[in-house]
Design goal:
Rossmann fold; eight-stranded mixed β-sheet
């Protein structure tokens, strides 16, 4: 059996899709030929990864286009040549997804599609999917009109790098950073709100993007705010261990992977009450407030040691119970066995 993972969001590294790479690697260990296909603006190539499954990168035919408009005839031809029985599509709203769905339905009519939903993008290509994995429970209702053909539905948690976290579990770390904001430096993240943070509170902003120069100018006189740039995931986790609160300013997106990572590190979260995803986490460690009160709420909670200690313990225990990679793999395998019962003997 062959399973293709299609990631149409462009990147020259695996980025936030470590989960899909891990699933592909585990499937290969079970005797299933799994391959990860990824769009990039960089040259074509194969990138090995510690997980064991290589990633095939395909340069967009016109790299100057916006992310969702990118396509690659080489990627399309490679998937058709691979001839998978199942195509798992990560993220929607990309023209590349539509091209792959149409080609596979035409030339490989026995193949099935799995939708792995991320943000709030919708497109008609997901209507062909027989199985849908959501990243938080309320996402199912948001996509209900686009997933009517699916016969298998489940929540598939974001991946947590437990190998790195476990290596740090016995190390005592001083939480010397008050607030951290993590994510791409784009308008939707509303990072300019951090200019309201009082000067005695330290803030670290992790990420890169088109607003880097503007934010650098905005915070140039704010000596308590540090722009850390883009850093490897292991360093992000180490930074979260040193941080007292994750402050997330965006109010319109799916489930940021950093939410689970923060709780796994014992770092509570303050975010907008417009986000649906925090309802999947314990209320003791995620505080939701109106966007115009985010900074004030963070300042108040930094003084609430009782809340902080409870949130640290509850967040860690919850993530270890609900987000182990083995549990994630078993959930994905249930979907595969639903679509292809014959592979049941190969999977947990």
């Amino acid at each position: 059996m062959k399973v293709a993972f299609l990631i149409s969001h462009p990147s020259d590294n695996i980025g936030g899709e470590v989960r899909e790479l891990g699933l592909a690697s585990m499937l290969r260990r079970c005797g299933i030929d799994a391959q990860v296909f990824r769009m990039t603006r960089a040259p074509n190539g194969v990138q090995d990864h510690p997980f064991g499954a290589p990633i095939l990168f395909f340069k967009a035919d016109d790299p100057e286009l916006e992310d969702h408009a990118l396509s690659s005839q080489k990627l399309l031809a490679s998937i058709k040549y691979f001839a998978p029985e199942v195509v798992a599509i990560k993220g929607f709203g990309y023209i590349m997804n539509k091209m792959v769905v149409e080609a596979v339905r035409s030339e490989l009519p026995q193949s099935s599609f799995i939708a792995i939903l991320g943000g709030r993008w919708r497109d008609d290509s997901m209507k062909s999917c027989s199985a849908v994995f959501y990243e938080f429970a309320e996402q199912r209702s948001l996509f209900a009109s686009f997933t009517t053909q699916a016969t298998h539905h489940a929540v598939l948690p974001k991946y947590i790098n437990w190998l790195h976290l476990n290596s740090r579990s016995s190390t005592f770390v001083t939480r010397d950073i008050d607030l951290v904001a993590i994510g791409e430096l784009i308008e939707r993240k509303k990072l300019d709100l951090l200019a309201q943070v009082p000067s005695h509170i330290s803030v670290s902003i992790v990420g890169d993007g088109p607003l880097r120069t503007r934010l650098h100018d905005l915070f140039s006189q704010k000596h308590n705010i540090t722009l850390a740039g883009a850093i490897p995931n292991e360093q992000v986790l180490d930074l979260l261990h040193r941080t007292r609160i994750l402050l997330h300013c965006a109010d319109d997106e799916g489930l940021p992977r950093v939410f689970g990572e923060a709780l796994a590190c014992g770092t509570p979260i303050i975010c907008s009450d417009r986000l649906h995803c925090p309802k999947d986490f314990p209320g003791e460690c995620v505080l939701q407030v109106p966007s115009n009160r985010l900074v004030n709420a963070a300042v108040d909670k930094l003084e609430d040691n009782h809340w902080m200690q409870q949130a640290q313990v509850r967040g860690r225990s919850y993530m270890r119970e609900h987000n182990s990679f083995y549990k994630l793999f078993v959930l994905f395998c249930k979907g595969l066995k639903h679509l292809c019962p014959a592979v049941g003997s190969l999977l947990p």
